[in-house]
């Protein structure tokens, strides 16, 4: 049996106890084949060393689809992550044990790191698919709950999309005509009116509603006995997140007694309250709980009868053992202020929770706070998923960093190693040793040292030693550093800067390094006779330095990667200049951005805020 088959069978044997509950037989066979292809591609890379990045995409796509599938079947995040870690270890063990004899020592390290980074990315795609399924599940739950709420309302509800096609109708709306939901869903307003509905509506009602206007009128509608009953109708526009009308809702109000109305309102309020996907707490003026919905019971593990009528401060101290009187939440409620995205980590009844709190005061007719509404969202599982994704991203980044360092340092070390072998074999004459050391060994070792220094700058940047600097003087110093190389390369250097520039707090040496990096890159791509423009603008308390070249521009597929360590399009570049510049600007509280298009040139913009 091929060794790749052996490792796949070993992996599947371990996983079957978990996968058997979530995959059908044909799906399991497809998954097995996918594993074989993935391990086969890993083996092919180890043998050939060819880095075919597009070839990984089908594996990543399948991983995302697989994560989505098992999430929809109920697999828990913890089980999936545990399986992912076992899978990663099995692949790396397979690579190390089955291939190390086929690799020379220099190649083995880089290939192991590359495979590690790709497997981590693969696992991250699975988590993304899992997360997407969870979001879809939540969205579907919201939709079902919306329909449940509309179904339980004590009056007729019909919902149309912006094309006038029926999307939902509750039982009360269907009963007078003896229709079923399946008979009407998807039908247009014109079709429904022609087939079933004999009531009339004012002229241009639909046009008004589609323009954002609410329209209400009195109409005759048929009852179950085929008699016409007079009711009030209202058509309400529905809006999307951008404020555009994307449908309408028609409500038919039946005449009822005041007692029935109040009773129905109470039932409606209770149902809506308990249908919410967030916990809801309603407090009175003394911050005692007067309402506490089902979702809040699920989040805190406390029944309504345990908390209703009790002060929120007392409850917090009783179940967490901590004082809430000096908290931001209590302070905001006392002053009647709204609360947005306030996060708390609490331990209640032995359960660790991370909750997000939003709230608004309840005010009387005079505008005085008489209570408070709190919305509680449980963020515990979401944060765990995010942390898992961040860990996978860190593993992938570490692999990329180490692979880049290994690749960049190998060349100078190979040169030094080759020279020493020649010297040891006495192929280098002693008279030539000094010249070769100066011209060959020292430059190559300097290159390796520069790469390591740049890498340390990216991974552990030094805090800037900032001081107040005259911006005009700083700019003049930069120009003196770059104008000689501009003359040497035949590039025209132009400066556009206003007078009376504000002073900036800068680490002069670090910022000069940034400008030298950007100008050197510009010189490398600007043809002789071309221009390099340094332009300075002051906008919204920020000084913007623009470095504009007339080079060929940056390809769209490269543009999103240029600030990644070791990503370079130059034959002898290290790919560390721009990441270092980016880190330095961030350390100054600023931003480094880029605008470019193929054949147009490139503009790097350094934005540094200044204190007024």
The number of distinct helices, counting runs of at least 4 residues, comes to 20
Question: Per the principal axes of the C-alpha atoms, what is the gross shape?
Answer: extended
Number of strands: 17
Low-confidence stretches: none
Cα Rg: 34 Å
Averaged pLDDT: 78
Major sheet characteristics: 5 strands, antiparallel
For the termini, the CA-CA separation is 74 Å
Number of domains: 4
Give a written overview of the molecule.
This is histidine kinase. Keywords: ATP-binding, Kinase, Nucleotide-binding, Phosphoprotein, Transferase, Two-component regulatory system. Residues 404-612 form the Histidine kinase domain. Residues 142-188, 265-336 form the PAS domain. InterPro entries: HATPase_C_sf, HATPase_dom, His_kinase_dom, HisK_dim/P_dom, HisK_dim/P_sf, PAS, PAS-assoc_C, PAS-like_dom_sf. The chain has 612 residues and is an alpha+beta fold. It has four domains: 3-148; 156-253, 2-Layer Sandwich (Beta-Lactamase), CATH 3.30.450.20; 384-452, Helix Hairpins (Orthogonal Bundle); 467-609, Histidine kinase-like ATPase, C-terminal domain (Heat Shock Protein 90, 2-Layer Sandwich). The protein is extended and about 115 Å long. Helices cover 52% and strands 20% of the residues. Strands 2-1-5-4-3 form a five-stranded antiparallel β-sheet. A five-stranded antiparallel β-sheet has the order 7-6-10-9-8. The model has no long low-confidence stretch (mean pLDDT 78). The longest helix is centred in the first third of the chain and has 48 residues, at 105-152. It is built from 20 helices and 17 strands. Strand 3 (215-222) and strand 4 form a beta hairpin.
